[in-house]
Amino acid sequence: MPAHPKLATEFVKNKERAHWHDQSLWFVRSKRDAASGQIPEWELLREQASKIKSYTVSHLPDLLEEFEKNANAKGVHVHWARDAKEHNEIVHGILKQHNVTKVVKSKSMLTEECHLNPYLERQGIEIIDTDLGERIVQLQNKPPSHLVMPAIHIKKEEIGELFHEKLGTEKGATDPQYLTEAARQHLRQKFIGAEAGITGVNFAIAETGGFVVCTNEGNADLGTSLNKLHIACMGIEKLIPRANDLSVFLRLLARSATGQPITTYSSHFHGPAPGAEMHVVLLDNGRSEIAGSDKFRRSLNCIRCAACMNTCPVYRRSGGYSYNNTVPGPIGSILGPAKDAKEHSSLPFACSLCGSCTDVCPVKIDLHHQLLTWRKEIRVRGLLPFSKRLSMKMMGWMMQAPRLYRFAGKCARAIVPRLPRFLLYNRFNAWGKQRELPDFPKQSFREWMKKNHDNK
Amino acid sequence: MAPKVGLFIPCYIDQLYPQVGIATLKTLEHFGCDVEYPESQTCCGQPMANTGCTNEVGPLARRFLEIFKSYDAVVCPSGSCVSMVKHHYDEYFTDNPEYEALKAKTFEFCEYLTNELGIDKLAGRFPHKVGLHQSCHGLRELRLASSSELRIEPFGPARALLESIDGVEVTTLKRPDECCGFGGTFAVAEEAVSCMMGEDRVSDHEQAGTEVLTALDMSCLMHMSGIIRRQQKPIRVMHISEIFAECL
């Protein structure tokens, strides 16, 4: 699998597109700044959210049992899945039991993580993503490139082209309103024809056994109320202890994600409607292991608002696909290696350690520190490329020997300025591709000190 | 008595930007510090640490402590190297009171001037539009100014010091504190993204009318200056200590 730098280089090659991507996401970050600025207690809210989530993650087994008990009491069927395979089989089992062949799904990154769509399609079940952005990438046969705005990387001209081909819209149409209306009509048919609805879960409440799904398009409501079967798929970390905690997160989520005060729909599900069935599938898939790790536990605080992506200068310029992971960006660069360190060993390095993600995170995950910790892990597990290991080892030796360091510096300052350009600027010097090297001075600071200061 | 300051000059400043070290020294001496530059210092180990090679950092961290522990204060014209010493050395020292003391007395240059020496105004004249690049480690690790993500009372003593100089106009950026893309080994390992970030920072400054681009970290400036010179943009690059020293 190509590493991040290679995929990022590909993305950046199209400068105009990379700029457009960067600016679209910066616009969202700016909206987030404005929205959070209207809440005087913003930092206090973050602190509270962080505490609630940290408590949850450290009491996960008890709270999950509490959730199960209370959900059962409300007539909700609760299932436990150890990994993606089990998850998919459980979902398929429920659908099969009800002879369902057509399913609508509201956006859920968890089902992306499990590759549920291709799995169900192989079982002969039609599964339609109903979030507009996600439907667009589904029609392209691609995964989302962003947690909240799955098609943020696609231009309206491309959507016009795609819809012309797949939905029969007019050729060359680019008007967002026209295209959205076409998608709406198309999705409406799918909603009406579906026999079951699958949703994700934003927050599940241990105290009540209910859960909340946040959408801007109302697709979760439509998808679950037009038929008699609702399957909600959630990662075990989506839990919060009490109903009272919910307001903290609902105030933070949409503001952090898109700069809205609240999502258009925050739908609360507390048991099935009369005659209907409701299932919740709880997925672990490596989460317990993260919960047990002192270094990375806090990454489970994540509420998937994607603020870290919108602010990340690397994500904005390299696009979601450059991460090659279900969850991209800073949080994805922590969760990815936790799943498979070898496969995702380049992700913790796809970061300039600027720390903006940490400051923007509504649940105060120390993202850039965890990325740094992952770098150490990558080194310890022997997954760091040889060239990096060697150069750092050599640098370490040199820096422990002041004389060697001084000598090397002196040589470089004597030699480099005399070298012809082609020896300095070639494919071996990544620095020099788009940047000049500094002008090497005649003497080092140390030499200047000796001459001008110490002998005064 | 004048505080005895151990001057901590990062390796790349020592080798490539001696004028920054000289300006830092001059400014500190101007304000009455008794400055000494310990000969045997080399590098704080940040490049290795940021690559995950912690084994290579341990000996350097212990060396650093030995070299600097006897001073009243350790002052360095680079936020990121200071942050390395203060925030990332812990794993090499267990219950070491000398290290705890070192942490408390290690300062970034501007921070030392404002917080420790209590300087809030600089004399002299520097009639230029100055663009201040807020280096990330100084900003978000050392909290030397308020970052744009946090909803807190804005502060920024370095900016205030700059603005106190007669003739200085600090330019206003569209993205006040976005990363320039240097990031140590990131600048090479992720060359494409790094350079695009640098280019974007430079053009934000260009559009804001920056004549002199400055920062508390020379590393960010090395990266941006590399881009400025390659693209032959009319922006001068100076470390903040150089501006201060010129105004003495």
Report on this model:
The complex is a heterodimer of chains A (456) and B (248). Chain A is an alpha/beta fold. Chain A folds into 2 domains: 13-289, 3-Layer(aba) Sandwich (Rossmann fold), CATH 3.40.50; 386-454, no CATH class. Chain A is 51% helix and 10% strand. Chain A has 22 helices and 10 strands. In chain A, the strands form 2 sheets. In chain A, strands 1-10-7-4-2-3 form a 6-stranded parallel beta sheet, with helices on both faces. A 4-stranded mixed beta sheet of chain A has the order 8-5-6-9. In chain A, a hairpin with a 4-residue loop joins strand 5 and strand 6. In chain A, helix 2 (15-37) packs antiparallel against helix 12 and helix 3 packs across helix 12 (246-257). Chain A is globular. The mean pLDDT of chain A is 97. By secondary structure, chain B is of the alpha/beta class. Chain B has 2 domains: 4-116, no CATH class; 129-247, no CATH class. Chain B is 48% helix and 12% strand. Chain B has helices spanning 11-16, 18-30, 46-50, 57-68, 79-87, 97-105, 109-116, 136-141, 157-163, 186-189, 191-208, 218-230, 240-247, and strands spanning 4-7, 34-36, 73-76, 106-108, 129-133, 169-170, 212-215, 236-239. In chain B, the strands form 2 sheets. Chain B has a 4-stranded parallel beta sheet, sandwiched between helices. Chain B has a 4-stranded parallel beta sheet with strand order 6-5-7-8, with helices on both faces. In chain B, strand 7, helix 12 (218-230) and strand 8 (236-239) form a beta-alpha-beta unit. In chain B, helix 2 (18-30) crosses helix 13 (240-247) and helix 11 packs across helix 12. The two termini of chain B are 22 Å apart. The chains are: A alpha/beta (456), B alpha/beta (248). Chains A and B meet through helix 1, helix 2, helix 15, helix 17 and helix 18 of A and helix 1, helix 2, helix 3, helix 4 and helix 8 of B. Chain B: One of its GO terms (cellular component) is cytosol. Chain B: Residues 5-85, 130-224 form the Cysteine-rich domain. Chain B: One of its GO terms (molecular function) is oxidoreductase activity. Chain B: This is Lactate utilization protein A. Chain A: Keywords: 4Fe-4S, Electron transport, Iron, Iron-sulfur, Metal-binding, Repeat, Transport.
